[in-house]
């Protein structure tokens, strides 16, 4: 199996090192693991692509490339150029430093890479490590992802539903709970939730030279969340799996509005 790994924390991020270990276990001794990751951190860029300017790519080592672009750019670079002669069989994105559950999904470059892979017709999985008080005490905050990552990916490859190449894309969002590997309670398939009252916002600051800057920040990650959701299950110590599609249609509102506004 040929596996492409990428992330949004950058080519030197420790989570990408953890993902390389997971991918190597999945690929096996006869497989290949290719890395195409952003040269610099790209957290929060979502599914952004560098449509208006070119992307510089550089080979750092055999099967290891850096791209001055977004995670989705990295996937496009791999499929369209670096691995064009033999595209990957699987794309893994992560392991993100922090959770990509609830409202975080909409901003995540980790999710954006998996989404682009799915749009290209390749099975894709995003993996993220929820951080908290328990992981802060660990030598390796990615311990839960390292211990359970390969097993979760194998389970999805064996029993997950994968869209046909010409169908609307389907990919999976995996989040590991904020505990060590021995503290995980199990796996839950759960829908994306929402933390109550949590929104991104800006924090203004004035630099010593008088210039005004805005820092973007999120809300508390332990806020109460939608019952039965990914966030609630993660806080209870479960690894969550959420099937996703890049289709933002609200079916209920579409049907209701069509009944009122459709003409002809």
TrEMBL record:
Subcellular location: Cytoplasm
InterPro entries, alphabetized: SurE, SurE-like_Pase/nucleotidase, SurE-like_sf
Survival protein SurE-like phosphatase/nucleotidase domain location: 3-196
Cofactor details (free text): Binds 1 divalent metal cation per subunit.
Source organism, top-level taxon: Bacteria
Catalytic activity reported: a ribonucleoside 5'-phosphate + H2O = a ribonucleoside + phosphate
SUPFAM superfamilies membership: SurE-like (SSF64167)
Cofactor names: a divalent metal cation
Binding site for a divalent metal cation: 8-9, 43, 96
GO terms under cellular component: cytoplasm
Broad class of where this protein is predominantly found: cytoplasm
PANTHER family per record: 5'-NUCLEOTIDASE SURE, 5'_3'-NUCLEOTIDASE SURE
Family recorded in the similarity comment: Belongs to the SurE nucleotidase family.
Designated name of the protein: 5'-nucleotidase SurE
Annotated source species: Paracoccus sphaerophysae
Organismal lineage: Bacteria, Pseudomonadati, Pseudomonadota, Alphaproteobacteria, Rhodobacterales
């Amino acid at each position: 199996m040929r596996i492409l790994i990428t992330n949004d924390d950058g080519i030197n991020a420790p989570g990408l090192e953890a993902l390389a270990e997971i991918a190597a276990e999945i690929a096996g001794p006869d497989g290949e693991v290719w890395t195409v990751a952003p040269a610099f951190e790209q957290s929060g860029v979502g599914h952004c692509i560098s449509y208006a300017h070119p992307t510089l790519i550089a080979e750092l080592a055999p099967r290891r490339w850096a791209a001055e672009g977004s995670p989705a750019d990295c996937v496009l670079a791999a499929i369209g150029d670096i691995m064009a002669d033999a595209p990957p069989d699987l794309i893994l994105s992560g392991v993100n430093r922090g959770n990509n559950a609830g409202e975080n999904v909409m901003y995540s470059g980790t999710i954006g890479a998996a989404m682009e892979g799915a749009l290209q017709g390749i099975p894709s999985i995003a993996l993220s490590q929820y951080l908290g008080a328990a992981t802060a005490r660990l030598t390796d905050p990615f311990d839960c992802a390292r211990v359970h990552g390969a097993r979760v990916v194998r389970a999805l490859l064996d029993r997950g539903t994968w869209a046909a190449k010409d169908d609307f894309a389907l990919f999976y969002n995996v989040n590991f709970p904020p505990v060590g590997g021995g503290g995980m309670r199990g796996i839950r398939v759960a829908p994306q939730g929402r933390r109550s009252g949590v929104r991104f916002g800006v924090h203004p600051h004035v630099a010593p030279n008088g210039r005004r800057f805005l820092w973007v920040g999120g809300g508390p990650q332990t806020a109460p969340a939608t019952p039965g959701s990914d966030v609630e299950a993660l806080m209870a110590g479960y690894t969550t799996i959420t099937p996703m599609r890049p289709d933002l249609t609200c079916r209920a509102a579409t049907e209701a509005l069509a009944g009122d506004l459709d003409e002809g």
